[in-house]
Structures are given as structure tokens and as C-alpha cells.
Amino acid sequence: MSFPTELLQQLQDTAFATAIGESVWLFPTIETIHVLALALVVGSIAVVDLRLLGWASARRAVSSIAREVLPWTWAAFTVALISGGLLFSSKAVQYYNNIPFRIKIALLLAAGLNMLWFQLRTYRDVAQWDAAAKPPAGARWAGSFSLVFWVGVVAAGRWIGFVL
Amino acid sequence: MPNPFVALQPFSDWLSTTALSVGIQSTTWIVPSVQILHILLIAALIASVALLNARLLGFAARSQPVADVAKRFLPWVWWVVPGLALTGLILIIAEPTRELTNPIFFAKLFLLLLVLLLTGVVQYRLSRNPAGWERLAPSGAAAIPTTFSAKLVGASSLLLWVGIVVAGRWIAYFLDL
């Protein structure tokens, strides 16, 4: 067996991963928590993205919306990450070899890089466009990319369930 | 416990043989796509109700009047719920037995009815008395506190929506129980 597969098999054989895989109710319960958390992640990110595009909450400052919404996004993301990790552990090898799962991870990374670029570059001079109903092109691009990536994450995530 | 909804089995069987249902079933991409759309709408809804109810509970956006937060997020609820109903209906037509003979599906519908009534009350109450759920802030404080009934409404609404999502996910697992 190759290196990642061996490691993933060990993860899958741990007591908690086996318990999740074998229990009738554990997987659905963790999955339900995952759905609630991801709904909050994607929905709250969308609030910020739509503001960056100038399509919603245009009368409120971008920074004030970010301050109000992003703590919820991060809290929900932490829950989604932990619950997702537990689901992954129950069938680690299958998920690793699953194409939609790989697409989902790639899209998550893309969403993360887009956010990082936005935070480090575009958002640095937010003071100049904070109140603008229509933020500058860089911010609008960041909002559009974010929406597309997160819709992709949800689509790929749902797709995993159809082929695994 | 006997499941009273097996009475809907003949109707489900008939529905699944209609041209519409057969058409949806035989086009393999429709059900997955509609499910993805349904989840995206859930995301829009959950974030809207979470932020609005967090305001009622006094957890978020405390410096903004309750009515302003409601004006931003309540319209999303009223626009998204019909979309959820429509995508949900397509999924039911595609696989009638999965929902129509499933007690969890009817529990979900019941919770939905309750939360829509509650949301209607919130909308009506805020239109009549926009500051009615706010308490007087101590002078100089930026945060506007909310009343006990605002917190009760916020907590109930949040719990009902969470219950609806939980029930929705468990429709798929009913047969395993």
C-alpha cells in the first residue's frame, strides 16, 4: 500500500472511526451537525460576498458587516471542519480516492486562497471604500469568486453522497 | 409504533407512475441538482434566521435597532422559503414514498408551519411597533438590549429552524431506524 493509503487505513481502524462507521445513528447525527454548520458557513459568507458585490446591505459599511458576520462564519467553519473530519475518518480510504471529495477539498483551498488574497491585499485599504455602495473591482471579484467556490463546495459535497 | 402514513402508500405509488415523476426519475441529473439547490437555499435561510434571531437574543449586531436587522434579513426568509418548497416538491414527485410515508417528513412540515406562523408574528409585530422588543439602553451604551419576549421568540425560532434541518436530513435515514 502507498504511503497515504496506509496512514488513512490506520485512521479508519481507530476505535472512534470504526464506531462511526458501524453505528446506525452516529454517522447521520454527525452529518446533520455538518449540514447545519456548513449552511451557516456558506450563508454567512454569502452575506459578506453580496455586500462586496454591492448587491445587499449596501447602505452599511463593509467592515461593520464583516465584524458582525465573520465570527459566526469562523465558529461554524470550526464545527464543519471537526464534524467533516469525523465523517471522513469513518471511510478515510474511500473518501481519499473519491473524485468529488478531491474536487471539494480543491475548492475549499481555492476559497481559502481567495480569502487570504482579499484580506492581505484588497481589504488593507478598506477605509477608502468602506461605505461605498459598490466596492472596487478587486473586492467585487473576491466576492464573486467566493460565491462560486462555496457553491462548488456544496455541490461537490452533495455529489460525494451519490457516488460513495 | 405503527406508522399511520403508510396509508399514503397507494397515492405515492400512483404519483411515482405519473409522466412527471417518471420524467424526473429518468433524467439522472435532476434529483442531484435540485438537492444541491435545496441545500444552497437552506444555507441562505439558516444564515438569515441565525443572524436575525441572534439579534433578538442579544448575541449579535447589538448596536443596531432590531427593526433594521429584521429589514435586512426577513425578506430573505420570505423569498427563500417558496424556493425551498418548490425544490422540495420536485424531490417529492421524484421519490414520493421516501417522504409521503415517512413520519419524519410530516414532523418537518409541522415544525415548518409553526416557524412560519412565528415569523409572521415577528414581521407583524415589528411593523406595528419597531422598537417594541428593545429595552432602554443605559445612557452612553452603544448596545440596545432586547426584552425577554424578544429572546423567547428568537430562541424558539432558532430551535424550530434547527429542528427542521435535522428532520430534513433524517428523512433519508428513517428506513434504517
Short description:
The complex is a heterodimer of chains A (164) and B (177). By secondary structure, chain A is mostly helical.
Explain what the structure shows:
The complex is a heterodimer of chains A (164) and B (177). Chain A is mainly alpha-helical and 164 residues long. Chain A is built from eight helices and no strands. In chain A, helix 2 packs across helix 4, helix 3 (26-53) runs antiparallel to helix 4 (62-90) and helix 3 packs antiparallel against helix 8. By secondary structure, chain B is mainly alpha-helical. In chain B, helix 4 (66-94) packs antiparallel against helix 6. The longest helix of chain B has 29 residues, at 66-94. The radius of gyration of chain B is 20 Å and the shape is elongated. The two termini of chain B are 12 Å apart. The model of chain B has no long low-confidence stretch (mean pLDDT 94). The interface between A and B is medium-sized, with 27 and 27 residues.
Query: What structural class do helix, strand and pairing data of chain A support?
Result: mainly alpha
Helix content of chain A: over 70%
Taking the sheet with the most strands of chain A, its summary is: none
> How much strand of chain A?
under 5%
The portion of residues forming beta strands of chain B comes to under 5%
> Helix tally of chain B?
7
Shape of chain B from CA axes? elongated
**Radius of gyration over C-alpha positions of chain A, nearest whole angstrom:** 18 Å
Residue share in helices of chain B? over 70%
Average pLDDT metric of chain A: 94
